[in-house]
Amino acid sequence: MKIATYNVNGVNGRLNVLLKWLEETTPDIVCLQELKAPQDRFPIKAINDAGYNAIWHGQKQWNGVAILARHMEIEEITRTLPGDDEDIQSRYIEALINGIVIACLYLPNGNPAPGPKLEYKLKWFDRLADRAETLLSLKVPVIIVGDYNVMPTELDVYKPEKWVNDALFLPEVRKAFAAIVSQGWTDAIRTLYPDEKIYTFWDYFRKAYERDAGLRIDHFLLSPQLAKKLLSGGVDRHVREWEKTSDHAPVWIEIDTK
């Protein structure tokens, strides 16, 4: 089974790119982030016509997450991250597909830091850690996937010395990510490529893609039940070259479901 994550940076504005990529690669499950569309503006007909069922949590102008499944049923579990009833940002959705719990997230950016946005990010991380621990306790196959807005190590960022004061690379943010992994999760892409430079995001400015000045901020965390079934994975970085494309590239893994 092929599972992918893609921060589309506007699902309607990038719809042609998304559909082209879906047709080219035919992933079985896709998690999308940054829809930038209200609930009633999600392009469900186009997604259905491409062969995918979908659930989504939209929000006007910002945020928004979705889970797509190719010729499979999606059983929604929740569309909010537990722990803060007053949080209205659409950043989390969770579903059961073919016996696997898929948690799709768009973690807050946190900039400018320090400040309230960083505080919100760290509190969101705390809530995610609680949810991750709960999901692990179920002892079922789980994937927590999406745009985490964190580079876990210096290997995950071009010129790390330039990011020391950025909320994506602050020690407390990296520590929060590492704390979740240490619960018993496997960082799938880094496991497959332990010593290689792997980026998933390139800024639109200063020819970042052409210079390969990128970041690895899109991650798959696998529960033990799936970590041992991980077969392969990678980044469809050529999609970043397409016209009117996102500043992220799709990231994917394959797991053995036999």
UniProtKB/TrEMBL annotation:
PROSITE patterns: AP_NUCLEASE_F1_1, AP_NUCLEASE_F1_4
GO BP: any one term: DNA repair
Keywords: Hydrolase, Magnesium, Manganese, Metal-binding
Record site: Interaction with DNA substrate: H248
Site (Important for catalytic activity): D218
SUPFAM superfamilies the record matches: DNase I-like
Keyword Ubl conjugation annotated: no
CDD domains recorded: ExoIII-like_AP-endo
EC number: 3.1.11.2
Cofactor note: Probably binds two magnesium or manganese ions per subunit.
Catalytic residues (UniProt): Y106, D147 (proton donor/acceptor), H248 (proton acceptor)
Enzyme class: hydrolase
Cofactor: Mg(2+); Mn(2+)
Residues binding Mg(2+): N7, E34, D147, N149, D247, H248
PANTHER family the record matches: EXODEOXYRIBONUCLEASE III
Name of this protein: Exodeoxyribonuclease III
Originating species: Flavobacterium pectinovorum
